[in-house]
Amino acid sequence: MQTFKLNNGKDIPVVGLGTWQMVFHVHRTVLSGLQAGYRLIDTAKVYGNEPGIGQAVRESGIPRKEIFVTTKLWTNDLGYDSTLRAFDKSLERLGLEYIDLYLIHWPGNEPARRRESWQALEEVYKSGRVKAIGVSNYMLGHLEELLGYAKITPAVNQIEFHPFVYDDQAPILEACHEQGIVVEAYSPLGHGRHMREPQVQKIAKAGGKTTAQIMLRWAIQHHAVPIPKTSHLERMRENLDIFDFELSAEDMDVLDALSRGDHIL
Fold first, then answer.
1. C-alpha to C-alpha distance for 263 and 160, rounded to whole angstroms
2. Out of 105, 112, 139, 180, which residue is the most buried by the measure of CB atoms under 10 Å away?
3. Alpha carbon of 167 to those of 138, 198, 201: distances in Å?
4. What's the pLDDT band for 263 if we cut at 50, 70, 90?
5. Do the beta carbons of residue 203 and residue 242 sit within 8 Å?
6. Which residues are catalytic?
7. What is the C-alpha to C-alpha distance for residues 187 and 211, in angstroms, rounded to an integer?
8. Smallest Cα–Cα separation from 40: which of 194, 262, 220?
């Protein structure tokens, strides 16, 4: 699995497996994903599936150091002490010795609690129980605020990112790149809404690839880490088969131009 380098020197796989809305079948799905070659698994407290994911990681037979596990702090837990408690509970539910990446899931509406949570994440990071810390759904204003007080620059900002929201998200992508923050792309396939988009289909047909593979490759070439969600083994394998080709500059421009503010969330 290819990787990007985080700003603390750690490696993050360039494509991951999302697990939102996976609960009852998550253990089987994550095991299948790991066997198919995924090494980045993305979850969150609010997904309600941390125990099954931890079980799959432990049972996979793959060395723990080769698997990158991300989970997230839910908005109700913002605040210094509550963040520390929430992290401990996530670690307990996962049943792992450490978490690779811990994110503030949403910025919420209270700047003071955001700041307290970031201070708590910095403390957990210093303890070694998490290997990298970051944020999710942080817009430009949130990032500027955070960088004004952070002693540790976030390693990641996870945002919705696909061609159909490119104009909205490009400024955030650029700001993150300037600060050495890796962008993770959730909903990189736009929940499948645009698989029949003629321009995407045209590029896919010309390259002998699927529309999903084209959209995932687009994210990677914007130096973003896509985390598509699927429970189907064939699609898992398809979504990993994106390293034997590159999109041309012209194709990237065509895909960028599809932006129409079509957000999932």
1. 8
2. 105
3. 16, 19, 21
4. low
5. no
6. 47
7. 14
8. 220
DSSP string computed for 159-209: EE-SGGGHHHHHHHHHHHHHTTPEEEEESTTGGGTTTT-HHHHHHHHHHT-
CB 101 within 8 A of CB 155: yes
Amino acid at 105: H
Residue type, 233: L
81-104 pLDDT per residue, tens: 999 999 999 999 999 999 999 999
**Pairing mode, if any, of strands 3-5 and 11-13?**
antiparallel
Q: How far is residue 49's CA from residue 203's CA, in Å, rounded to a whole number?
A: 36
Tell me the whole-structure pTM to 2 decimals: 0.95
Domains of the chain: 3-194+224-234 (3.20.20.100)
Query: Residue 104 in 3-state DSSP?
Result: strand
